[in-house]
Amino acid sequence: MINIAILTDSFIGATGGSEKHIKDLVNGLHSSEFTIDIIQLSKENFIPHESGTSEKNISFHHIPVNRVYGFSGIKALFSITKLVKQKKIQIILSFHEMSDILNALIPTKVAKLSSRRDMGFQRNKVLEKVIRYVNRYFDSILCPSKAVQQKVLSENVKKDKTFLLYNGINSDSFTTTLEQSADKKCALFNELKIQKKDINIVTIGNLNTWKGHKYLIDAIKIINSNGITSQLVIFGDGELRKILEQQIKDLKLEGNVHLKGYLPNARDYLSAFDLMALPSLTEGLSNALLEGAASGLPLIATNVGGNPEVVKNDINGTLVLAEDANALAKGILQYLPNTEKHKQASKASREIIETDFSLKYMYAQYNSLFKKLTNKNNYD
After folding, report:
1. What is the pLDDT of residue 28?
2. Could you please report the per-residue DSSP string of 106-161?
3. Based on the domain organization, do 257 and 136 belong to the same domain?
4. Looking at the structure, do residues 144 and 292 belong to the same domain, yes or no?
5. Does one domain contain both 256 and 307?
6. Are residues 128 and 58 in the same domain?
């Protein structure tokens, strides 16, 4: 039995990419081979399961930290160290900066892994220096894209200490837009309380500055001004909702841009759309982009982070400059529905997922890595 602890800064019930990755990971580790302790460090007063409770081979813990450099950080370090010893943890896998720092400081003999989920765009100069320092304490740093791997290498980490491990997705659970019947598409649109237009575009992402939604909304205005009726559905919520609502109102796009908030089953609607657009200013590797590709949607995405590893120009979509509404509009107009180019891009999107981003392959990589580390450290 291999005992693993997962440290995460964020609320484990959240809807972001790292939270989804953690859920996918723990669901794929067989209970006969692994035990998992998930430790949430965020300040939320609750977690999806009561702290200390267990479900199958998974236990949940909430050890809130206000400041990793302050008293709560020191207290958390002692609590985590005690838990690691009690549970005979062999591997600690940390997500995000605060968890990485505490992982590096835990004074016990365990294999330590850092899972880097983004390009470090929210770090200030001090935090960047701290992360560069703690990198030395990790047995391996897991990277979800080659872009993130390059960022880690720029922090003076040797390449053999990094491990490229793409997010996985179960493509069999997705219906593609080419497979979906016209009647079913209409039914899905009816559920969303919208009507089909000439071009139907979807995007998924929290409503924050670095997701770049305002540029995509501007692109819809540009497309419609060319005499082609388009609409955009945005799944996600966040602090910019009111600002985006005002933008939609100012551009008179109330009937063309729909903010649907967070829907846990948003993926079930993807096959009703014609394409997916991702206007992010930065990305590690977008789970939304993978879900769009699994749904056979041509992809229009900004040329940032790991996006070029999913979007291949003129094969399954187009990469465009970030913060450029005109480029987004031009890219979207290249893939009009019912054209041969749209059909070929749709098929290519699905093939890319099945070839490079399968959930089965992700599980195999994790299993191999965990077993290699425990053998290396001579654990029972």
Report:
1. 87
2. --S--EEEEE--S--TT--HHHHHHHHHHGGG-SEEEESSHHHHHHHHTTT--GGG
3. no
4. no
5. yes
6. yes
If asked whether residues 134 and 175 sit together in one domain, one would say no
Domain co-membership, 181 together with 142: no
Q: Which domain range does residue 319 map to?
A: 171-356
Q: Fill in the amino acid letter for 68.
A: V
Sheet holding 317-320: strands in order across? Answer: 257-261, 230-235, 199-204, 275-278, 299-302, 317-320
Mean pLDDT computed over every residue of the chain? 92
d(CA 99, CA 261): 29
Dihedral sign for Cα atoms in the order 171, 352, 322, 151: positive
Two tokens, residue 98: 């605060």
CA-to-CA distance for 328 and 226, rounded, in angstroms?
Answer: 14
Q: Residue 93: its pLDDT value, please?
A: 97
**What is residue 21's predicted lDDT score, i.e. its pLDDT?**
87
Residue 27 belongs to a domain with what CATH number? 3.40.50.2000
pLDDT in tens, 94-148: 999 999 999 999 999 999 999 998 888 878 899 999 999 999 999 999 999 999 9
In tens, the pLDDT along 43-67 reads: 776 666 655 556 778 888 989 898 8
Percent of the chain with pLDDT over 70: 95
| pLDDT for residue 376 | 66
73 plus 9 within the same structural domain: yes
**pLDDT tens digit string along 78-96?**
999 999 999 999 999 999 9
CA dist 17 and 24 (Å) reads 10
Number of separate domains in the chain: 2
Taking phi over 0 as left and psi of -120 to 50 as alpha, with beta for the rest, 205 belongs to left
Share of the chain above pLDDT 90, in %: 80
Reported residue count of the chain is 380
Contact of 254 with 180, CB cutoff 8 Å: no
Q: Is 34 helix (H, G, I), strand (E, B) or coil?
A: strand
In this structure, the answer to whether residues 112 and 183 fall within a common structural domain is no
Question: What is the Cα–Cα distance from 162 to 152, expressed in whole angstroms?
Answer: 8
Cα pseudo-dihedral 58, 63, 65, 69, rounded to 10: -90
Residue 216 has pLDDT above 60, yes or no: yes
Q: How far apart are CA 36 and CA 135, in angstroms?
A: 23
How is residue 326 written in tokens? 């005109």
